[in-house]
Design brief:
37% helix, 6 helices, alpha/beta, globular, 218 residues, UCP033634, KANL3/Tex30 alpha/beta hydrolase-like domain-containing protein, KANL3/Tex30_Abhydrolase, AB_hydrolase_fold, eight-stranded mixed beta sheet
Length: 218
């Protein structure tokens, strides 16, 4: 396994990313939340799960602040894609990946739902959405209309949770996991460590099932 810290220049900015290479022809691009970075439990163990299945991982590093959420959806999505697209282009040009997956946490689900699901070359890419912002109309409608397979995990105490929208999203090709009493980090209760760890394990089992199905289709 080779772990390299890389940079790509775009629009006069240097964008950094971590490339974890296990010699695969499949790669998972990951997009973190604001303050919920790749060392946090959901993203750390999602990374481990990908590596367990022999899938390369790319962590895209960006430094957006909460002010991003005040912008229009189109502007939020564009600002994020200005960082993400150059990394995608660089990685896919540099190595002969034949398939890819996308995984986002919180705001990291915006570029997936707002742009990547609409790119024809990624029609077959599974999407993993951890605590997506489904109260945003654009996120919800794009997910409702897309034909991508994958996973959506959210807590029913998350401020971005909407029971009716989740019910509608169950008609898509996504596996839906609703964690009872879980917040935006999928932590359960105030200090209920054991139940929170159980919830994390549940999400990882669902992720494992998505990866297994994806590999069978390859």
């Amino acid at each position: 396994m080779n772990v390299s810290e890389e940079r790509v220049e775009a629009r006069g900015n240097k964008i950094s990313y971590t490339h974890i290479d296990v010699g695969s022809n499949v790669v998972c691009f990951m997009f973190s939340g604001i303050g919920y970075l790749y060392d946090k439990p959901l993203l750390y163990y999602a990374t481990m799960k990908m590596l367990e299945h022999g899938i390369d991982v790319v962590h895209v590093h960006y430094h957006f602040k909460s002010e991003l959420l005040k912008k229009s959806f189109a502007k939020k999505c564009q600002d994020m894609m200005n960082v993400i697209q150059p990394v995608l282009d660089a990685v896919l040009a540099d190595q002969a990946y034949v398939r890819c997956l996308f995984l986002g946490k919180s705001i990291g689900t915006i570029p997936i739902a707002g742009a990547l699901v609409n790119q024809e070359k990624f029609n077959d890419a599974p999407i993993i959405l951890l605590t997506p912002l489904i109260t945003y109309d654009e996120v919800f409608m794009n997910l409702l209309e897309c034909r991508h397979q994958g996973l959506l995990a959210i807590g029913d105490k998350d401020r971005f949770y909407d029971a009716d929208r989740v019910k509608q999203l169950k008609r898509t090709h996504l596996t839906i996991e609703v964690i009872h009493n879980a917040d935006h980090s999928l932590n359960v209760g105030t200090f209920d460590t054991a139940v929170s760890i159980t919830a994390l394990a549940r999400v990882m089992r669902s992720l494992d099932a998505v990866i297994q199905k994806f590999k069978l289709q390859g």
